[in-house]
Each structure stands twice: as structure tokens, then as C-alpha cells.
Specification:
Chain lengths: 317, 560, 300
């Protein structure tokens, strides 16, 4: 099978801007994008640099953008991205500076992993033998332990794109791994730190990390669990948590969202400065005929909705 | 004066390297790790099935040791095996306390599975990602302890002065700059060399660097003929399918749908030791009962639930790399190169006969695996002897007197050598082509079944390979992330290793463990109950013999 | 064609023009909407941060209301679509959860059959998959030639693909482009069209939120889009209502990109009076679009 690749090349020593170079290689039907890139590197153009090692989606070296989306090159069959022999566009992973060709500088990635203090911090002296732990807890942790730190989620994180300080999906998923570990004794402190700016509440829930993760770690889902845990233990003095509460309480009262009440409830009624800052926006909306009613609009079944909250709000099924 | 200087320099950041680093630092030494890849990219990741320890109430370290001795076909050094198995329990508990999410019983205690060649269920695991789960936890510990890592630095040479190893010369891959890193002790923890075969379960980074580096400065390398073929590697890519698949109850079937292991190992069946199962499969395939050069691994009867809980990764591998969902269909597998039992000769503290040089993990040969390694003993080997070598090197840092660091001229020598490589004209041959030819040749001539004629031919072929290597040029002349140059150097390491494997295999005129000679099908304890050692000479490896240590288990016939 | 219609909270609140245009456009298309007046908020992915079980129960209630009508559900919000699809999947997988929820729902005589499930489709999906773009084209009275339009999807209608029916409908990430071309616009594509508008963090990290909006709007403007069209009112809020504030983070001067709701775009092409579609009820003036529109002949 003929595989056509269009690879973004960059050599800092050349003084030139990045540019695409095209390659055509002959590969077996089952070839992956990585196989094809290796074929290029080994037999066509030895100047092409990329990281790769295990070829089986376990070492996390070969995350890169393939047709615009972060993927592991080794796990991406050519046939899945170029069904009819189309050209495959290969670029370095996003949100990280390029060192050369497809090799990116992952130092910012590792800095954030370090920032969540990613090691088990048990409290008290260790037991005589192993820690006892429910089997289910360990199985649940396996989902995040599946993370191979490839950086695909970071590459395509939309928050990171606008704010380099965001802890980003991989580190936060890693943080969940310790928050949820029954052996860890530092849960509250971890959650407090994670609730700070640049942490869990800065995620915009765009689902890109869930979509691109090659190991199904679902980083965003872990971030949402961290939000719930933090809120549950009373770490609520932040805009994110207040937003969730405000949203939830208006629905609880009327069955539907009341946007008018969202802002003051999120900022806190007494946070006059923040509320005033919203005024121009509010005036604009009134002028456009878009201002939501300040009154709670109740749906007919509002009482039933309230009952649902009462029944499930604190239930775990 | 070298800019970089440490008490202990560890080359390689897999399980052995990281475990050694943590131990040496806890003992008060100034430690650094140097690794050509980021630590979590290391090949320890690929260990799937588990790690052995006789923790069960019905089990004992002695039984584990006996299984290991028997598995090794009596070539393992029994003093070392005793250490391995005695320290297994504490080593495992320690990993658990560091945070590894080992599988649990309902009681909350650690749960185990049975592995090949083991008389008890003593393999502890995290689904089928055990190596990854441990590697990442050790990396967490590295962060916790603030250990220095020279990340993506590539060691090109070891420094030896007055028969003492004094550190390494390394190239910073990102800049191409070359540095001397001086160290009172250097630990080789670079892992295996599977890439000298084609195909192989090993990652592209497994190029025998440390074994060759040690060899080049005169350290003896032993048991290099003992190459393990894993019975279940995936058709095509050769990716590993864990032994855990069989320990969870998977069957091996031939083209007639027969569980053929009943002919070869009626008691242990699919869970006989790896050499036995690999030979059985190869025999079936050779005698025409294979399916497209493979046999079938059938897991359908395990059910989706169990697969989801314990074998999720290999299911994904089957789907991604062979288009087969093992819940619905049997997967085609065949024996494939997986592990080198041999390596840099060390004592039970990782010390090599060369002062200042230590080794641990797959690159080392203590020897605990002898002629055949049992599944899930390799992870154990890395943490037990990684820790011991860390402790030993820290001790050396405290006790060594009058140590002077090497001069920077070694960096200059290396730079000249690298430049010479870059200056060579391109002659149409390619590093990748030479490696591929060597890999195919090794698979064909130094495989599961071997003969004198094949092995001698392999020795001859290696001469051609080396001659081509000495003339080959590299296309990339740049300094930044020049992987082209890296591969060229790695190929040199692999050629050293392959030569050692070939000549050692010729010398061992018997069948033992993974080394099966169809012209000498019997084990010959009278003549070959010994290690074959290679030492460097400009003409090629020089062979000598080293005794096998027998403590309490006299050699007997090996049956499964 | 008849659907149980879930308008979502925002079309009844901050984006009333969406509700009005949806009702008007559907009528013109001959799509009958039976509104779920008693439907409740889907939770928008926010209530689930607080309690996943509550969010699932709330969604099950809406599904039960639709199932009682025996009709598939149509929504006009990418966020609702994503949340509803996820809830369906969880309810289907977790029989115990579904049973407990149904026990609570039974108090008001409702029951959601999670195994049978319910077809839940955004108006965009309905247009392409159920209604058909050829049929749409045949009904166009005012082709929007000479106007350049860019798509803006909203995250939840695109990701994660595994729960959004991409196995069956792999082209769901190209529908907006298809619709834009079907109504005669010139299609403008740009990098940010499938990214996040920033709305979910507007009150949490305003700078990040507005920078996201600004980036996408700037790109679209640079590529020459006269307007963007979105099937998500939350995206509309951030891209339209916040656009004056986002302008300070823009990478172009004079940021001015009108944002149309999907039903407004379709309505315009069907020849409906822009006023009826409430196209004037936006923060960013749509006059630029409308002026080009008047230049386009209306086919009788």
C-alpha cells in the first residue's frame, strides 16, 4: 500500500521556519503511521527526528498530531486515517514547544506532573505487611494508572492554549489517582491545592482530552470527580464551586436554569465589584432584548424535580 | 575537571535503575541517573503479567527458589537465586507501600495468579500493566526524592582509568553536546538487547548499550547464548501478549484445534516454563500444524468481564495490532525474542569484576535466570538487585579512598569519534538496513532450535555485518536531536552483543533451557554445567568459563 | 415529522430569539414540535459535577416525558445533546441506577425504559439525517449566495465521539459545513471551529474564557467569515453577548462577527422575514449579513 505523508519539519539549526515535506512510502496494509514514519526515517530521510520506542502504545513516546488531532502514531493504523490513500498530515504535538521536527519539549508537562505532588502520602506508620485496600478501589484506580504520560491530552487541551499556567488534564488525572487512593492520607490538602486558580475549576469541559486519550483515561471525567470531592468536603470558597452551587440551586428551585441569578450567586451577592463588572454585559443584553427574567421560572413539575434532588443529591448508586 | 560529578551514576532509568537510585540516595550518596529516554518511556513498561514473591501462607521462598533453579535448567547461580527469592516478599511489600495498585482479594489483601514454571500462585499483578504500574510509581518516588536525572542523554563510552571505571561520556541529545560525567561508581541498568533480533517484543530502545559499554572496557559478559523466546508474541508486529493470558486460563491450540501442550508438558500444560512452551509451539508449526506460521491463543472461555478486569491491555493490543478481539476470536501467536538471560557478570551486590562498575536488571547477569527465566521473575530481579547495587555503590562512595575524577579529554575523544562517523561518506548502505539484515539473520540462524552449522554460519555473517558497519555513514549531520547518529552508535552496541551471542552459542554443545541444539539435544552437566564468559579483544569476544554456584539443589531431570 | 421538543433553559432565558426562530423555522420545514413544557434542565454537565446520580435522574425524567409521547426527542443545544447522550449511556449500562431512578419517577407516573432507549437528536442532526439536505435545498427560497459563513459546533455535539453515535454517523463533525453549503453560503473554515467557546468558565476565569472566544472569532474574521452559525446557545452567549469584552483579547482590529443560531440561518434561507427570526436580537449586529441578504433575490 502506498502511504503518503505530509510531515511538518523544523530544524532549529537551519534558521528556517517550519515547513511541510512530503514522503511516499510503500507499506503493508496493516501498517501504522509510526511504521510509515520509521520507514521514512530509516530508508528515505535520516534527518527526520521523532520519539518512539515500544510500538505498542505503552511507552507514550510517539504522541503527535495526525490529521490535526493528537494521537499515538504507533496506535494509529494508516487505514483508519487515510481510508482511500489520502495524504496524512503529521505535525508535532500542540501546546509544547518544538525541539526538532516531531520532537517537542515536554518539560512544561513534567513540571505540572511534579506540581501535583504525585506520590503516595500515607498517614501514620505503615502496616506490618501491605496496606489493606478494597479490590474495587484498585480497579477504579487502574483507569487512571493506564495513563502513559504521552501528552496527547495536553497537546489538544483548549484551556492550555490560552493559559500556560493551567495544570492541564494529565496532571489532574494523576492527582485524582492519589485523591482516590484509600491508602493516601493527604486528600484534603491535595484537594485544597487543586481548587486554587489554574487547577480543577479552570477546566472548560471541552472533552478534547477524553477524545484524544489513547488509553481511555478520560482525564476530564477525573477532573469532574475532583470537583465533586472538593465540594463534598467543603472546599467551596471559590468561583468554580459557587458556580456549580448557583447553577444547581436554581434548577433545584424551579426545574430550569435561571441565568439572571447565576452571576451574583457565583461571585457572591456581596462581591459588589465583581457584580458591577458584569453590568456593561447585562446592559448590552437588555438592549438586545435578551435579558433573562430575574424571577425563578418554575416548570409545572418543579416539585418533582426537587424530590429528585432530595433523593439523589447525596446518593451513590 | 569534569563539570558533572557524582558518587553514583546510574545508566538507565527503568525499574532497576530507578530502584538503585532511590536506594543509593537513601544511603546518603549523591546520585544521578542518565537515560537516553525519559524514565517512564523505559522498557520496564512492557512487562505485563506480574512480579513473583512467595508471600502466600502455603508458599515459601525455598519453593520459589527451587522453581527458579529448575526453570533456569540448573544454570542459575543458587546463592543469587536464594537472595532473589528471600528478598522478594519485602521488595514487593515495599512497592505496595510506595503506591503500586496491586490486585486485591476481597479481603483487601494482595491477590496473586499462577505463572509458568511456578508450583504456587505467587505472581502479584496490576491487570496486565504491572510493569507500567511499577515503573510509574518508581518515577513518582524519584520525584519525591528529588533525584537528578540527565534525561535524554545518551552514553557513548564508559571511562576506565587504571582498571577502575570512573563514569561515562554522554551526548546530550537535545544539543549534541558531549560531556564527561565522573562517578565513583557506575551502575549499568540499560536493559536488554532484543533489537538485535527481528522481530522482537522489545522496544526500539533495547539495543544492548550497557552490555556492550561494559564489554568494551573489559568487564566479563556471561550466558549470552541464553536468549529467551516468549511463547506468545503477536503475529505480525511481534508485540508481547502476556503470560498472564495463559495464567488466567488461556489455551494454546494448533490448526487441528488440539491443546497440544498435553503432548509436551502434560502436568503444567500451557504453564510450563517458557522455553518448553516456545519449543512446543515451534514444533507444531514446523510439523505443519500451525496456522499461518502461528498457533492460536484462545481466551474466549474467560468471558468479557474477566478480560476487562485483568487483561484489558492485551485485548486492546489484539484489536489495534492484529484486528482480533480476543473475547470473540483466538489470537494468532508465535515464539518471539523477548529477553536476554545473560549480561554483565555481577555478584549478588551488582558488583562486576571491574572496580567501580556495577550492573542490575536485564543488562546484568547475577545469574538468577540461568538458561531460562521464569515469567514475573524479571521485575523481581530489577527491584531486588537494583536496590542491592544502590546500597553497594553508596557504601563504595563512603569507603573509597584517593579517588580522582577523570579528565575532560574523554569527552574530546568521543567528540572526535562521533565526528569521524559524521564525516564518513554515504556509501548507499544504511544503518537500518544493516540492523535489519542482522536481525533477520539472528532469527533465522540463532533461534529456538539451533545447530552447529547454523551457528557457525551466523558467526561468519556477523563478520560481514561488522565490516559493513565500519563503512556505513549517517545522513543527518546536525547536532539537535540527531537520532540518525544515535542509531548508528546503537547498532555498534548490538553488533557486539550479537557476536557474543553467536560465539557463545557455538561453544555450548548441549541443550539447556532456551539454548536448544538439535545436534546436541541432551543437557550435558558433565561438560556444560558452567557459564560461558566473553571478554573483549580487538579480534572479537574471547571465551572463558565460570563455575555455576550450587548450594542445595543438585541438578536433576527437568519435567513439567 | 414529529418530535418531542426540548428547548433547553437558555432558549427560554437569555436567548429567546433561538426559541422563536426554532418554532418559526420548524413550522416552515413542516417539522412538528411537541414541546416538553414540563421538561427540566439537563444539568449542562454542571449538576453532574455536584451529583452524577441527580443529573442522570433529571435527564431520565425528560426522556420519560418524551417516551410517554412516543416521540423521538429534538434539542437545540449542543450541550444538551452531549449531556443527554452521556446520561443515556450511563442509564443503559447501570440497570440498578435506572431502576432506582424509575422508582422515584413513578411518583409522577413516569417511567424511562433505558434498554429501549430514546432517539435524542440536535436540530442539526435532524436536518441532515432525518430531514435531508436535498429536501432542504429544494425548499430554499432565498439562497444565501455571496455570504461567507463559518461553523461553530460547541464541544458536546462533537466529543467524545464514542457516546455521540459517530459509529453510525461518522460525518457528524461535518454537518455544519454541509448545511452552510446547502443554504448557498460560501463556507469558511478555521482552526477553532470545533474548539471550546469558553462559556463554561466565563464566571470562573473570565480572561481565559474571553480569550478563547476572541481567538476563534479573530480567526474566523481573518478567514473572511461574514458570520458564524452555531447549534449551541451557550456558545452563542459567549461568542455574541461577550464579544465586545472579548474584543480586547482579539488578534484582529475591529472584531465584529455576527453569530446566528442554526434555525435562524435555515429560516433566512427559507425566505422567512429576518424580524420573525429575531435576528435583530443579538448583541453583535447582524446588519452586515442582512444587508447582503437583501441583495439576494427571493425566489417565489
Amino acid at each position: 500500500m502506498e502511504v503518503k505523508l505530509k510531515v511538518l519539519r523544523y530544524d532549529p539549526e537551519s534558521g528556517k521556519e517550519p515547513e511541510y515535506r512530503r514522503y511516499t512510502v510503500d507499506m503493508p496494509e496493516s501498517a501504522t503511521v509510526l511504521d510509515s514514519l520509521i520507514e521514512v526515517r530509516e530508508f528515505h530521510d535520516g534527518t527526520l527526528s521523532l520519539r518512539c520506542s515500544c510500538r505498542s502504545a505503552i511507552c507514550g513516546s510517539c504522541a503527535m498530531r495526525i490529521n490535526g488531532r493528537a494521537r499515538l502514531a504507533c496506535k494509529t493504523q494508516v487505514s483508519s486515517v487515510a481510508e482511500d490513500g489520502e495524504e496524512i498530515v503529521v505535525e508535532p504535538a500542540g501546546n509544547m514547544p518544538t525541539i526538532k521536527d516531531l520532537v517537542v519539549d515536554m518539560a512544561p508537562f513534567w513540571d505540572k506532573i511534579r506540581a501535583v505532588k504525585p506520590w503516595l502520602q500515607p498517614s501514620g506508620p505503615p502496616p506490618e505487611r501491605e496496606y489493606l485496600a478494597p479490590p474495587q478501589a484498585m480497579i477504579e484506580l487502574a483507569e487512571v494508572m493506564n495513563c502513559i504520560m504521552c501528552g496527547a491530552c495536553v497537546s489538544d487541551c483548549t484551556v492550555l492554549e490560552v493559559d500556560k499556567s493551567f495544570l492541564a488534564p494529565a496532571a489532574l488525572a494523576k492527582a485524582w489517582r492519589f485523591v482516590h487512593d484509600p491508602r493516601d492520607g493527604n486528600t484534603a490538602a491535595r484537594l485544597r491545592e487543586l481548587s486554587e486558580p489554574s487547577g480543577i475549576w479552570d477546566c472548560t469541559r471541552c472533552n478534547f482530552c477524553v477524545q484524544v486519550c489513547p488509553k481511555d483515561v478520560k482525564p476530564m471525567d477525573q477532573i469532574m470527580k475532583l470537583r465533586a470531592e472538593a465540594t463534598a468536603i467543603g472546599i467551596t470558597n471559590n468561583a468554580g464551586s459557587r458556580h456549580t452551587f448557583a447553577f444547581t440551586s436554581t434548577v433545584k428551585e424551579g426545574g430550569r436554569l435561571n441565568e439572571f441569578q447565576m452571576l451574583p450567586r457565583t461571585h457572591g451577592l456581596l462581591n459588589i465589584a465583581a457584580n458591577l463588572a458584569e453590568l456593561p454585559g447585562g446592559i448590552r443584553m437588555i438592549r438586545a432584548g435578551k435579558m433573562p427574567s430575574p424571577f425563578t421560572h418554575k416548570i409545572p413539575g418543579a416539585a418533582h424535580v426537587k424530590r429528585i434532588f432530595k433523593r439523589f443529591e447525596h446518593a451513590k448508586v | 575537571m569534569a563539570v558533572y560529578q557524582h558518587d553514583v551514576l546510574i545508566i538507565g532509568a527503568g525499574l532497576a535503575g530507578m530502584r538503585a537510585a532511590i536506594a543509593a540516595q537513601l544511603e546518603g550518596a549523591d546520585v544521578a541517573i542518565i537515560s537516553k529516554v525519559h524514565p517512564v518511556r523505559s522498557h520496564s513498561n512492557a512487562a505485563q503479567g506480574g512480579i513473583n514473591a512467595a508471600l502466600g501462607e502455603d508458599d515459601s521462598w525455598e519453593e520459589h527458589a527451587f522453581d527458579t533453579v529448575k526453570g533456569s535448567d540448573y544454570l542459575g547461580d543458587q546463592d543469587a537465586i536464594e537472595v532473589l527469592c528471600r528478598e522478594a516478599g519485602p521488595a514487593l511489600i515495599e512497592l505496595e507501600r510506595m503506591g503500586v495498585i496491586f490486585h486485591r482479594e476481597e479481603s483487601g489483601r494482595l491477590g496473586s495468579r499462577s505463572f509458568g514454571g511456578a508450583s504456587k500462585a505467587r505472581t502479584y499483578f496490576v491487570g496486565d500493566i504491572t510493569g507500567q504500574a511499577i515503573l510509574h510509581v518508581l518515577y513518582e518516588q524519584l520525584i519525591k526524592h528529588g533525584l537528578r536525572v540527565y534525561e535524554e542523554w545518551f552514553v557513548t563510552d564508559l571511562i576506565v582509568e587504571d582498571a577502575v571505571c570512573k563514569g561515562a561520556v554522554a551526548m546530550e541529545i537535545r544539543t549534541g553536546n558531549v560531556h564527561v560525567i565522573a562517578a565513583k561508581s557506575t551502575i549499568i541498568a540499560t536493559g536488554g538487547l532484543g533489537r538485535m533480533y527481528e522481530p522482537s517484543t522489545n522496544a526500539l530502545i533495547c539495543t544492548g548499550d550497557g552490555i556492550s559499554l561494559a564489554y568494551r572496557i573489559g568487564a566479563p559478559i556471561i550466558d549470552m547464548e541464553m536468549v529467551q523466546f516468549h511463547p506468545t508474541t503477536l503475529k505480525g508486529s511481534g508485540v508481547l501478549i502476556t503470560e498472564g493470558a495463559r495464567s488466567e486460563g488461556g489455551y494454546l491450540l494448533n490448526s487441528e484445534g488440539e491443546r497440544f501442550m498435553s503432548k509436551y508438558a502434560p502436568n503444567m500444560m500451557e504453564l510450563a516454563s517458557r522455553d518448553v512452551v516456545s519449543r512446543a509451539e515451534q514444533t507444531e508449526i514446523n510439523e505443519g500444524r500451525g496456522v499461518d506460521g502461528c498457533v492460536l491463543l484462545d481466551l474466549r472461555h474467560l468471558g468479557e468481564e474477566r478480560v476487562r478486569e485483568r487483561l484489558w491491555q492485551i485485548r486492546e493490543i489484539g484489536i489495534d495490532f492484529a484486528g482480533v478481539d480476543l473475547v470473540k476470536e483466538p489470537i494468532p501467536v508465535r515464539p518471539g525474542v523477548h529477553y536476554i538471560m545473560g549480561g554483565v557478570k555481577t555478584d549478588i551486590d551488582g558488583k562486576t569484576p571491574l572496580e567501580g562498575l556495577y550492573a542490575a536488571g536485564e543488562a546484568a547477569c547475577v545469574s538468577v535466570h540461568g538458561a531460562n527465566r521464569l515469567g514475573a521473575n524479571s521485575l523481581l530481579d530489577t527491584v531486588v538487585f537494583g536496590r542491592r547495587s544502590g546500597v553497594a555503590t553508596a557504601e563504595r562512595a563512603r569507603s573509597v579512598m584517593g579517588w580522582t575524577p577523570p579528565s575532560d579529554r574523554y569527552a574530546e575523544e568521543t567528540k572526535r569519534k562521533l565526528q569521524a562517523f559524521l564525516d564518513r561518506p554515504l556509501n548507499g548502505d544504511r544503518v537500518a538496513k544493516i540492523r535489519l539484515d542482522m536481525g533477520n539473520m539472528m532469527s533465522e540462524l540463532v533461534g529456538v532450535f539451533r545447530t552447529e552449522e547454523q551457528l557457525r554460519l551466523a558467526v561468519e555473517r556477523m563478520k560481514d555485518i561488522r565490516a559493513r558497519y565500519e563503512k556505513v555513514g549517517v545522513e543527518n549531520k546536525g547536532k539537535v536531536f540527531n537520532t540518525d547518529l544515535l542509531f548508528a552508535i546503537e547498532l555498534g552496541f548490538m553488533i557486539d552483543c550479537a557476536e557474543m551471542t553467536c560465539v557463545s552459542a557455538v561453544a555450548r554443545k548441549e541443550s539447556r533451557g532456551a539454548h536448544y541444539r538439535t545436534d546436541f539435544p541432551q543437557r550435558d552437566d558433565a561438560n556444560f554445567l558452567k557459564h560461558i564468559a566473553c571478554t573483549y579483544s580487538p579480534e572479537g569476544p574471547q571465551l572463558s568459563e565460570m563455575p555455576v554456584t550450587i548450594t542445595r539443589w543438585q541438578p536433576q531431570e527437568r519435567k513439567y | 415529522m414529529k418530535y418531542a421538543f426540548w428547548p433547553g433553559c437558555v432558549s427560554k432565558g437569555a436567548c429567546p430569539e433561538l426559541y422563536t426562530s426554532m418554532v418559526r423555522t420548524s413550522a416552515a420545514l413542516g417539522i412538528e414540535l411537541v414541546e416538553l413544557y414540563d421538561g427540566n434542565c439537563t444539568g449542562a454537565g454542571v449538576i453532574s459535577e455536584h451529583s452524577m446520580e441527580t443529573a442522570d435522574a433529571l435527564n431520565a425524567r425528560n426522556f420519560a416525558l418524551a417516551q410517554r409521547l412516543g416521540l423521538p426527542l429534538i434539542n437545540i443545544c449542543s450541550t444538551c445533546q452531549g449531556v443527554q447522550s452521556m446520561a443515556q449511556q450511563r442509564l443503559k449500562k447501570n440497570a440498578k441506577l435506572a431502576a432506582e431512578i424509575n422508582q422515584t419517577l413513578s411518583d409522577e407516573g413516569l417511567y424511562y425504559d433505558a434498554q429501549k432507549g430514546l432517539e435524542v437528536k440536535n436540530f442539526l442532526w435532524v436536518l441532515v439525517e432525518d430531514f435531508g439536505l436535498d429536501r432542504l435545498k429544494s425548499m430554499i427560497k432565498r439562497p444565501l449566495h455571496g455570504i461567507s459563513a463559518g461553523p461553530f459546533y460547541g464541544c458536546y455535539i462533537l466529543r467524545p465521539e464514542s457516546i455521540l453515535g459517530f459509529d453510525e454517523f461518522p460525518e457528524r463533525d461535518t454537518y455544519l459545513e454541509q448545511v452552510i453549503e446547502a443554504v448557498g453560503c460560501k463556507l469558511i473554515t478555521y482552526e477553532g471551529q470545533d474548539k471550546c467557546c469558553g462559556f463554561p468558565i466565563l464566571t470562573i476565569n473570565k480572561k481565559n474564557s474571553l480569550t478563547m472566544a476572541a481567538n476563534h472569532l479573530s480567526e474566523a474574521q481573518k478567514e473572511g467569515a461574514d458570520f458564524l452559525v452555531t447549534p449551541c446557545p451557550l456558545c452563542h452567549l459567549n461568542l455574541d453577548a461577550q464579544q465586545p469584552d472579548a474584543a480586547k483579547y482579539a488578534t484582529v482590529d475591529g472584531l465584529q462577527v455576527p453569530i446566528l443560531h442554526l434555525p435562524q440561518l435555515i429560516g433566512l434561507a427559507l425566505g422567512i422575514d429576518p424580524k420573525e427570526l429575531r435576528v435583530d436580537r443579538h448583541v453583535v449586529s447582524t446588519n452586515k449579513v442582512l444587508s447582503k441578504l437583501t441583495a439576494t433575490p427571493v425566489h417565489a
